[in-house]
Amino acid sequence: MSNLEQASPSNAAAGASAGIRMSVGEKLFAVFNYTFFILMGIITILPFLNLIAKSFSSEEAVIAGRVGLLPIGFQWGTYQYVLQDNMFLNALKISVLLTVIGTALSLLLTTITAYPLSKPRLRGRKPLLLLFIFTMLFSGGLIPTYLLMQNLGLVNTLPVLFLPAMVNVFNMLIIKNYFEGLPDALEESAKLDGAGNFRILLMIILPLSTPVMATIGLFFAVAFWNDYFASMIYITNPALKPLQLYLKELFVSSTGDFLKDNIDAALNTTPQSIQASSILLATVPILLVYPFLQKYFVKGVLVGSVKG
């Protein structure tokens, strides 16, 4: 009996190792996955490498079209030019303000909208949800929306860039589903201690919702940072143009004619190099946010999406 008892753990281990062995089909599928995603990663990173090479290459190399993935005739005058350009710096300031203010207010309104809708005891909950979902499918249209912003006196103001997008229904539903997955016992015990709804939300619900808050906050930040359409429609004042609209106008003329008169010949650079360096400088701020919030992505999105 003792021999059988001693042999059973080894047999169990052998069975477990045999259970995790991959079949031929699974191995082929894994090879396909690795190959596919490696190729996708390479395809994604190559344009960035080309932009970096152009931004650091000399005028002759860029004009001749000899710049590939590595700089030729290294120089950094393009970055000096862009960082000293008042239009770029002002557009960067507007984009930072828009992203910070818009993300904070949008996350606040989306959260206080999602919290009551996550409670089955809310009267008229289903009709309210249907109204929100209706706005995902239908909108008032571009011209009526512009006329509304104009009548409200918001055209050529900073609030017009974030007020119409402060509650994103898709993000609100993700937060709502996340709240629904939290134990009801936490709120019940807090109510027995005399806590109200706002205190429960601030002191109990939000500390437990860091993953979904960080994820949705990043969604809002990226959306505000990358948006140029709203500013293209509502903004004509150069002092209020965000960075993405600045970049859009920078590329309207593919040859950069509006830059040629302002580029110092001593810089040894071209409009194409300045365009490349402007794109890279505009990408860096939002990229710096990702490493701090990446760990919350899977948990925040998946947990907030499993319940309907």
Please tell me about this protein's structure:
By secondary structure, the protein is mainly alpha-helical. It is globular and about 75 Å long. The N terminus and C terminus are likely disordered.
List the helices and strands and how they pair.
Elements: H1 2-19, H2 24-56, H3 59-64, H4 77-83, H5 86-117, H6 125-137, H7 142-151, H8 169-180, H9 184-192, H10 197-208, H11 210-226, H12 229-234, H13 243-252, H14 257-260, H15 271-287, H16 290-293, H17 297-303
By DSSP, the count of extended strands is: 0
As residue ranges, the low-confidence spans are 1-8, 12-19, 304-308
What would you call the structural class?
A: mainly alpha
Instruction: Please give the CATH architecture of the largest domain.
Output: Orthogonal Bundle
The value of Rg in angstroms is 27 Å
Question: Overall 3D geometry?
Answer: globular
Identify the CATH homologous superfamily of the largest domain: MetI-like
Assign a percent range to the helix content: over 70%
Compute the number of structural domains: 2
Order of helices and strands: HHHHHHHHHHHHHHHHH
Number of helices: 17
Report how far the terminal alpha carbons are from each other.
Answer: 53 Å
Profile the largest sheet: none
Averaged pLDDT, please?
A: 80
